[in-house]
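The instructor's notes for this session suggest beginning with a concrete chain rather than abstract definitions. Hand out the sequence below and ask the class to guess, before any prediction is shown, which regions might be ordered.
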Amino acid sequence: MATHTLDFERPLLEIERQIEELKKMGGAGGDGASRSSDLAPLEKQLAELRAEIYRKLTPMQRVQVARHPKRPYPLDYIRLVFTDFVELHGDRLFGDDPAIVGGWARLDGQTVMIIGTQKGRDTKENLRRNFGMAHPEGYRKALRLMQLAEKFHSPVLTLIDIAGAHPGLGAEERGQAGAIARNLIEMAALRTPLIATVTGEGGSGGALAIGMADRVLMLENSVYSVISPEGCAAILWKDATQKERAAEALKLTAQDQLTLGVIDEIIPEPTGGAHADAEAAAEILAEALKRHLRELMKLRTAKLLKRREEKYLSIGAFTEK
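After discussion, reveal the predicted structure:
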């Protein structure tokens, strides 16, 4: 049974409870064939109901799934998708930021530089990683690794799951806005393929700082937005309880972002979200990354940069009066 149930998943709890009881009774002896015949219809009902619920999620419910504490984080995907990972540390200026992890790895035999924003699983780990909110030294470390990859003609893959860059005084004193801006400038001209994937939350400049890429992908239940729904509601309506209204207006879901031309592909998740089956989610992500990487590696540098420029110039629409 799920250890962390979202409010819209509550209809699943009773069926899960019945399945658990039947499994316990079967393990304690009795008619195994009878237990199995009772179990199959319940498991089918559970799967169908879960699929139906996840098919009709509202934007705010997608936000809840993107924030699920059991959802795979970048280090989980690095473990499941990549091999030979060697983590690199430090920005060579101030220090190391554990909220951003990165280093060399291999994807299907291809050497890549993998960079991701990392949250913690418990309070201790979250404090160490600053709840996944990066400081400027984290973004400078990310840029250093991208430039290292460029030097060796290796592609850069980024995994994004961040509520936003750290807004504290120390981060501002050390040049948070400048670090994000510098990353955007340098990534626009990086002479090697870039693939960015939003795996959970893609929040504001904190996500953009490692999100400018030749291909931008989103997992089905991830979100990408300039601000959180709660923050948006507090600013626009002075009422954080208007978060459902804000989530709808922000157009933050993967389908919204695809329609708007901000991203290039939605990566499907297992039924019930990536947190329901991390290994299956990682396998689907791996196939998408390999496919896009094969396509980008065929391009000459000049064409790669030209396409990147055209991609970002084509985003958005305007009218003249």
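Then share the key points. The chain has two domains: 9-56, 63-313. Residues 9-56 form one domain.
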